[in-house]
Amino acid sequence: MTQTLLYELAHARTGDKGNHSNISLIAYQPQDYPWLVAQVTEQRVAQHFAYRNPTRVRRYLLPRLGAMNFVIEDILDGGVNDSLDLDLHGKSLSFHLLTLRIDQNPLSPPHGASR
What we know:
Elements: E1 3-5, E2 10-17, E3 20-27, H1 33-39, H2 42-48, E4 56-62, E5 67-73, H3 93-98, E6 101-103
Antiparallel strand pairs: 1-6, 2-3, 3-5, 4-5
């Protein structure tokens, strides 16, 4: 099956609370939401962020919004007050999630095609 990058099918926003990050993932098109739910699991997100050593990843589904929210625990190197990272709030983590490779939805037109 052909693969694509997640940013072809969704956009994301990041927030932080202490040492935890939450990333909302929102499908561009309603028909892609069930596909994203099947492809972007807690396990896949934990693997994608393994280099940051998160202790837990939880996913909350928001089907009426065509969205899901991931809470990634202990990923911000202590949080805003303790971290020496340049990105204290973890805002760049949403773009990192969007680089996740997933299988292309066969029901969705390829990137660049009229949606």
